[in-house]
Structures are given as C-alpha cells and as structure tokens.
Write a structure and sequence with these properties.
The chain folds into two domains: 36-114 and 222-276, 3-Layer(aba) Sandwich (D-Maltodextrin-Binding Protein, domain 2), CATH 3.40.190; 117-213, 3-Layer(aba) Sandwich (D-Maltodextrin-Binding Protein, domain 2), CATH 3.40.190.10. The protein is built from eleven helices and eleven strands. It has helices at residues 3-33, 46-60, 71-81, 92-100, 151-163, 166-169, 180-188, 201-204, 236-246, 249-257, 264-270, and strands at 35-42, 62-69, 86-88, 110-115, 117-122, 142-145, 173-177, 194-198, 209-212, 221-229, 275-276.
Length: 285
C-alpha cells in the first residue's frame, strides 16, 4: 500500500469515527422528534398491550409511555397527576367511575376485548378444587383481588354473593391482591389454593396455573376492556391513532392469542345467562 492509499484509508477511518460519534445524538434527536402519548392500562390487559405497543411505535413512529397497574390505581394516577392521554381499565366498572369523575366522556368509550371470571388454581391443584362451592371448604386458602381498586375483586365479591356463599368463603380469604397480574402471579407461585381470576390467566402461566371454568349460571356479568381518551390529554389525534390500532387485525390477533374474547357473542357462549358491562355496587365486603 503506497502513501496515497494509506492517507485515504486514514481519512476514511477518521470520517467514520466522526459519524459514529454523532450517531447517538442523531438517534436522540429522531426519538424526541416523534410524537408521544401516555397510556394508563389495567394489568389484566398487560400481556396483550405489551406486544401491541412496540408494533404501534414502529409503524406509526409514535412513542408510548405505558403505565400498568390496577384499574383503580391507574385512574387515581390520572386524576392526581392531571395527565394521561388514554385510559384502559380492566372492566366497565372503573370506566364508569372515570366518566362520573369527568376524566373521560362516555361517548368516547370503545370496547376492545371481553373477559369472563373463572377459578384459577396452581397446576397441581393442591386443595382438589372442582367448583366454586369448594372455596367454602375448611382450610382452603382463597385469594381475591382488592375490590376497592381492582376490577377482578369487584367481580369476585359479586359472583360469590350471587352464589350465596360469600360469607362462608370470606374466612378462607387470606389475601387481597393489588392487581390482576398479582393475583395470577400468587396462584402461579403456589401460595394459595384458589383464586377468583379471569379465564385468560391460563394463557399467562399455562404450566403453573390451571383454570376451572365456572358453571354457566354462576357468572352474573361479563366484563369488557374499554378504552377512552382522557380530558387531560393534549394529543388527541395521536391518541386516536393508538385506539384505531387497538382495533386493527394485528392487535386482534394478539388479543385473541392471550385468551381474550374478541366479541360479546363469543363471550356469551361461555356465559349465556350473564349480563354485560354495567357497574356492581360493592357496599361492605
């Protein structure tokens, strides 16, 4: 290699080094230049939305700041912080609360998935649970979600009362989980004998959690996953793009993969006597 060729190689190497040094700044500028939205989501929808968000970001070049927790906690965070573009609770109960508080408009609410309650037990089913009434047997360790802040907890109290066994099951309740995700996790960890869960829990940890369907006449209400733009959002056009994407074929495939029903008719086949949506007045529990 002669001197001229060596100088060309050195110049090229120097140029590449300079370009690489600027690359992180170019990425940061590009990232900041994209639109962004903030989404507060109930944890029952966690597996699905965590798959949907990255694809939405890639396709639309809109960044999503995603918060996941119990529906009640997510609503409180929106109210306290007075921010957030989209609210996705785990059931209509908490969306009704959001409408009542003026956080969202009722006419803006859309339904993106349907779910039904079920009994969730560890895969080895240590207490031999076969049906709902078994939760009232002596020494059965029962878990329900916190009815004050978790949609699943409201449904648990409602269906146990409808069955007429809530007062018998209550002494067996050893914990009130702070979210749907925590409820499923505690069952998978074999720390309880049974929990009132959602049927989708069986898809979360199929090797550790077994789902025992409720009898069709034991399900008082079918839940749906609603979504709405909040009054605190300033990027309604971007937020609407996200909601539209939740209704896309791609999102539906993900939602269905995680065990959610894609229509009321599908859910109704497993709960033909149940009502749909609405709000349960919890009272004392």
């Amino acid at each position: 290699m002669n001197l001229l060729q060596k100088n060309k190689v050195k110049s090229l190497f120097f140029l590449i080094t300079i370009l690489l040094s600027f690359f992180p700044f170019l990425l940061e500028a590009e990232y900041k230049g994209r639109g962004n939205i903030e989404v507060f989501c109930g944890s029952v929808f966690k597996p699905a939305i965590e798959e949907i968000v990255p694809e939405f970001e890639r396709r639309e070049r809109i960044n999503v700041n995603l918060h996941i927790g119990s529906s009640g906690t997510m609503l409180s965070q929106i109210e306290i912080s007075k921010r957030g573009d989209i609210y996705i609770p785990g059931s209509p109960d908490f969306m009704i609360k959001a409408v009542r508080k003026g956080v969202v408009k009722e006419d803006d609410c859309k339904k993106i998935a349907w779910i039904v309650p079920a009994i969730a037990v560890p895969s080895n089913n240590p207490a031999g649970i076969k049906e709902l009434s078994d939760l009232a047997k002596p020494n059965v360790r029962v878990l329900i979600a916190n009815p004050q802040s978790v949609c699943l907890g409201v449904y648990a109290v409602e269906l146990l009362r409808k069955k007429g066994i809530y007062e018998k099951v209550k002494p067996n309740i050893i914990n009130y989980a702070e979210s749907c995700a925590k409820t499923a996790s505690l069952v998978a960890m074999n720390t309880v004998d049974a929990a009132i869960g959602w049927s989708v829990f069986g898809r979360w940890n199929s090797d550790k959690v077994k789902i025992i369907p409720l009898k069709k006449d034991e399900i008082p209400r079918i839940a749906f996953i609603p979504v709405a733009i909040t009054k605190y959002g300033s990027k309604n056009e971007l937020a609407q793009k996200f909601i539209t994407f939740l209704e896309s074929d791609f999102s539906k495939r993900i939602i269905g993969k995680w065990g959610f029903y894609l229509s009321f008719e599908d859910a109704k086949r497993d709960a033909p006597y149940a009502s749909a949506g609405g709000e349960y007045k919890l009272g004392d529990y």
